[in-house]
Specification:
about 10% strand; four-stranded antiparallel beta sheet; 4 domains; 20 strands; six-stranded mixed beta sheet; globular; about 725 residues
Length: about 725
């Protein structure tokens, strides 16, 4: 059976999916139904066809309701996967104007991601027919067709990354060709740098011209190239590059001043205050740079094969490009340190924008109408927060809070059994993606605190400015500084990441110029109290090498490891070799060494590294600042301390893991699998550091940091340690 695009197009437009799949795509009839409840709302799904175990489902929005939002669609997909692992889901609206096709990409060792493809009644949807052609099967294929074949075809049709990678693969070729056209730059590295800069500028302009921002012309650059060649001649005294492009960059997009001659040359061009189009140091260093017209004709022909959309919607067509593709190019190809250019996704830019623009607008409004903000015994705008607090709390923070907790979770916080249950993954009706019960409980507590403040009318100003996603500070009154944790997440948790950001105030004077990365206020205050009251580890380490030393790996992720001997490593022939990234720290006594061993190898040691480190490298300075109140442990006998260290060391030896690196087997001790032993020492340090009241926060911070289950053969993929 040959795919009939015209017939398929008609069936798509009529929303006749059963006929489409069976008659045009060669799938088999299938009859089944599912009812899935998400946050109290039922969603009905009907099976329309199947092929070798892969099922196509249809979820139609009831009359008067729209297609569920993306977080809800992802929850539905996870529930469907429990019934049919391999599947497609087609979401449609009641008015039959929109379709969203969801397919889950599953890869070993990675969370499933769900690319989505949009069909609109008002669009031509030619790209959609190409996707359908990829999952059409003929009679000749039936005999040998397997589920693997079907899922492979679905990947070819619906994997969005495939389109991005295709653009990127060709981009590398075009980048090399463009580089070869450039003359007048003697240094090879500078020439490569300039080629990347030029292509960045041109891609940025392609997005702008498609929106009509450049003199109202959707093909502005190509039109100007042709006009330049017609008026000045091809590669004559004035080339397109020197006569037009440099003036467009530096005087048009990168300059504010306008004059009739410039406007005649460029047309109506906006000024962009961003630095990308200002004169670059390379252009100032090499004033005789030349690029022939042929280079631009070729790159424009490449770019013109794609449709450029300056929006955030998923790509609807194999030939569409949006800013995410540009971000992919930035991340995979361009030297970011050289370019000084970094790609930030829209959720982060939205967060930064909201937390800068909205406070500015509030301040401007207050300057114009103060009584709306400050009106003793009268109404103010802040009353809206008090009257309807839930409206002003992010949906991610509120998720599942209306449901009563299961009995085994809603137990007294001091009950050991309950806390063990808290480390289990929580079901979707209570949890956001990847959350365990401990995180759910912390989020519910945070929700209750925020709501109580709003309902009590305590929030009556917006008084901070965002500096970046880690550290913010007050701009008026008493100087105050706030911080948040380093966030690690799987792709499925990304949609809620920004909404869940929480800040904690810290005292800059206590952190030696560092910004501590911790968002739990109570724990941060307790650690700062320990820093004030207790000496640091630095006081007790020996400045000269001694026999009482500990060895540590200079990189880490899910654990840090300190041991009496370096973890063994072997070359390709099995011969033991010295570790190249091993550091050491010496002490004056075995007792002090053993105490440091139990502190640094535990959860407290790992969290301290996460708070002050860079989430990869392990240095002495990361740990010499940790509070080390050994005087509070003076009543503990040397033998008992040695026994604790020996028990932990034995557990570490039993959990020695290796990672293959350039043919070498690099050893490391998996402390994440030694927590049954290290937790006992942690309780001693808990009391010494006065962390009893915030120990649940320690467990929460650890759970948020370490998101890996650690199977039998797993090493720490994040950084060897």
């Amino acid at each position: 059976m040959e795919f009939n695009a015209a017939s398929a197009k008609g069936l798509l437009e009529r929303f006749d999916f059963a006929t489409l799949f069976v008659n045009e795509l060669g799938w088999d009839r299938h009859s089944a139904a599912l009812s899935i409840e998400i946050l109290g709302t039922p969603y009905a799904l009907k099976a329309i066809a199947e092929k070798r175990g892969m099922v196509a489902w249809h979820c139609e929005a009831p009359k008067g309701r729209s297609i569920p939002d993306r977080p809800t669609r992802k929850k539905i997909e996870r529930q469907v996967a429990k019934t049919t692992l391999e599947h497609l889901i087609i979401f449609t609206d009641a008015n039959r104007a929109e379709q969203i096709w969801c397919w889950a990409r599953r890869e070993a060792g990675k969370p499933a991601s769900v690319p989505e493809h949009f069909w609109y009644a008002a669009s031509g949807n030619r790209g959609f027919l190409q996707k359908l052609a990829a999952i059409a099967f003929s009679l000749e294929e039936e005999e040998s067709l397997t589920l693997v074949d079907v899922t492979s075809r679905a990947r070819a049709a619906f994997d969005v990354e495939r389109v991005t990678k295709r653009f990127y693969d060709q981009f590398k070729i075009e980048h090399k060709a463009f580089l070869d056209f450039i003359s007048g730059i003697a240094d090879v590295a500078d020439r490569e740098w300039y080629a990347s800069l030029m292509l960045n500028r041109l891609m940025f302009i392609y997005f702008m011209q498609r929106k009509g921002f450049l003199n109202g012309e959707r093909d502005y650059l190509r039109n100007r190239l042709e006009r330049c060649q017609k008026e000045k001649g091809r590669d004559k005294f004035y080339s397109f590059y020197s006569y037009f492009l440099l003036r467009l960059f530096h005087e048009g997009l990168g300059g504010k001043k306008r004059n009739p001659e410039l406007e005649k040359l460029l047309g109506r061009i906006p000024y962009l205050n961003g630095g990308l189009f200002e004169p670059h140091p390379i252009e100032e260093q090499y004033p005789k740079i030349a690029i022939p017209d042929e280079a631009f004709a070729r790159i424009f022909a490449y770019f013109d094969r794609y449709q450029w959309h300056l929006d955030e919607r998923p790509l609807r067509n194999d030939n569409e490009i949006n800013p995410d593709v540009l971000g992919y190019i930035f991340e995979k190809y361009i030297n970011q340190k050289q370019m000084g250019a970094y790609y930030t996704k829209e959720d982060i830019t939205e967060y930064i924008s909201k937390n800068t623009v909205i406070p500015f607008l509030f301040d401007a409004a207050k300057a114009k109408c103060k009584v709306a903000f400050e009106n003793p015994n009268g109404p103010t705008i802040w009353d809206h927060l008090r009257d309807d607090p839930d409206r002003y709390i992010h949906a991610a923070i509120k998720h599942g809070v209306e449901r009563p907790l299961p009995a085994d979770i809603a137990t007294d916080v001091d009950h050991v059994t309950a806390q063990a249950n808290w480390n289990r993954a929580a079901p979707a009706e209570f949890a956001l993606p990847t959350e365990i019960w401990r995180e759910v409980l912390a989020r519910r507590t945070r929700y209750a605190e925020i709501r109580a403040k709003l309902a009590a009318g305590e929030v009556r100003e917006i008084n901070v400015r965002v500096r970046n996603t880690i550290h913010i500070g007050s701009r008026r009154g008493q100087k105050r500084a706030y911080t948040t944790s380093t966030h690690r997440w799987f792709e499925e948790a990304r949609p809620h990441l920004v909404q869940k950001i929480q800040y904690a105030e810290f005292a800059p004077s206590l952190w030696d110029g560092l910004v501590p990365k911790l968002s739990l206020p109570g724990l941060l205050r307790a650690l700062e109290a320990s820093k004030r009251e207790s000496p640091s580890l630095e006081r007790y380490r020996s400045t000269r090498p001694s026999s009482q030393r500990l060895y540590f790996r200079k990189s880490a992720y899910n654990w840090v490891s300190f041991s009496l001997e370096p973890a063994p490593s072997y070359d390709a022939n099995g011969k033991r070799i010295s570790a190249s990234d091993s550091g050491e720290i010496s002490f004056d006594s075995a007792r002090t060494r053993d105490l440091a061993h139990t502190l640094l190898n535990g959860k407290i040691g790992l969290l301290w590294w996460a708070i002050v480190g860079d989430d990869f490298h392990v240095t002495l300075s990361n740990f010499t600042t940790i509070p080390f109140p050994v005087e509070k442990l003076a009543t503990i006998e040397d033998e008992q301390i040695e026994a604790s260290r020996a028990a932990l060391e034995a557990a570490m030896q039993a959990n020695l893991v290796f990672k293959l690196n350039a043919g070498k087997r690099i050893g490391n001790y998996n402390l994440a699998k030694c927590r049954g032993t290290s937790d006992k020492s942690d309780l001693v340090w808990r009391d010494a550091l006065c962390l009893e009241e915030v120990w649940n926060d320690v467990e929460l911070a650890y759970a948020q940091l370490v998101k890996t289950d650690f199977g039998e053969s797993e090493s720490d993929e994040g950084g060897d340690g």
